What does this fold into?
Amino acid sequence: MCGIIGIASNKPVSINIINSLKKLEYRGYDSAGIATLTDNTINEKKCSGRVEELEKILFKTPSNGNIGIGHVRWATHGVPNITNAHPHSSEQVSVVHNGIIENSDEIKKELKAKGIKFKSQTDTEVVTLLITEALKENKPLESVFKTLKKLKGSFALGIIFKNFSNIIIGARRGSPLAVGYSKEENYIGSDSYALKSMTNKISYLEDGELCLLTKDEVSFYDERLKKINKKILTLSENGSSADKGEYKHFMVKEIFEQPDTVKECIEEYVDSSKKNINILNFPIDPQKINKIILIGCGTAYNSCLTAKYWFEELTSIDVEIDIASEFRYRNLKFNAKNLYIFVSQSGETADTAAALDICKKNNIKTCSVVNVIESTIARNSDWVLPIHAGIEIGVASTKAFLGQLTVLYILCLKLAFVRKDIDEKTYVKHVTNLKKLPDAIKKCIKSENNVQLMAKEFISAKGSMFLGRGPSFPIALEGALKLKELSYLHAEGYPAGEMKHGPLALIEEGLPVIVLAPMDKYFEKTISNMQEVIARGGKILFITDNKKESLNENIRFGLRVPHIDNLLSPILLTLPLQMLAYHVALLKNCDVDKPRNLAKSVTVE
Ligand code: M6R
It folds into this structure.
């Protein structure tokens, strides 16, 4: 996955390309590059590492040109260095690419046999060289079209041409590509967010489509190169801001925003006077839902797993969950009476989008729970439930996780009520409790100083374990995921009852073990499992909402979160774990907002 941008303008474009690349860095930050056209020459500048480095290069040696493309990379083929950084240019063309060309080795062999030389180890360079070959006999659009026919895999491409200095061609298969419009300036970009500071008028390319931009107009073509028209959408305004404000990192800002984002989310769905949930137009008659299948990746998968416990507790519906990269390759028996729910912050995760496509191909109605409502997943779903978290920039997902949980919980309550699985009194009680959530989240955040102390226990640890039972188990997984991705410290999330079946062997003197023990039906069992860890020397960091439980000498560190309702405890237990991961990462001097090897939006398989 990577981020691409292209601008055709009546004025120099390099500064705007750099600004957009900064916004696209969430898609990759291994290397960055830009190519502009000046006096019919392709002027390429690249760096390994962040866009900041590229900006410094441009500061010393500016790139002029009213037309240009830019790229941020998350390496797939070839190590992250300057040679493999995009754009990949020949004498004639320069190309930026997001996606993977699956048959690049085959094409490379054919081109090498013709004596054509490669500079990089990337799959993208085959696109550059195929277009260069095709240009010997064709115009730009036909050359790109002929090249695309030879490619297998996924791509969003931005291409500029030495001898056609007023055009950019964009093409899409699998990877997203937005087109933006402004006065005497038009754009392509991996997402609307990258274009938002320049325009709020957007169209999206569908699979197989191409576009050709000049500064004055944009033409669109279908997969047979027939000219088509596109709808122009106006982007929604979004309250939350894309800068860090008073905070040191986006992640901590996003953690602290959670009382507000959850409040907004609840207000979007819950009618405050009637204590009713405004979720209407179910894609399937709620009474006839046979099964709910929740699908996501990473943190989104953890929210699916948490929701499974809620749906099972409150409704009479059977629930399955799946990791999108597994779902898409399973031999599934689709059933039109099943409700398939796709959960994704970005709405661009390739595996989740592909899993949704499979449902569509099987004539299944789909529902998505997304943050970015202009995203591919949202646009391709029959029914969208936005989480209203506002833009999330930190690679480690925090407020989107709470948003996903909140929406899934709201959906669960509504379904339980309309199906008469719960009576009105219970429904109103749960809705009333839900409204207490933002204040309780605020209280959790106030324990940051204690969490900071807890974080010190991890500095010299070799690894760590996170344990929970029932709906606290997915939160243990989420806590471990956060710690791994931010501080590069090995962390395992486990159902506490499963420890004795193997993982207990990992426990040794001083190993930090986080135990999540809310006052639910699993409490006593969790305490017993904790004793088994204590007996083997584990260093217990205990998180509970149980006011009565006194912390004894075997517990190295204890933390209390507020209690509203057992069903809501997974949400509140998440807060200390997010802050813990943040503070351990700080203590270990890790790059909090951009952890190594990762990207915010995973648009490759
Ligand atoms: O945008 P999505 O919610 O589809 O992303 C899914 C995962 O890639 C994402 O949650 C990832 O696991 C996060 N980095 C976790 O913090």
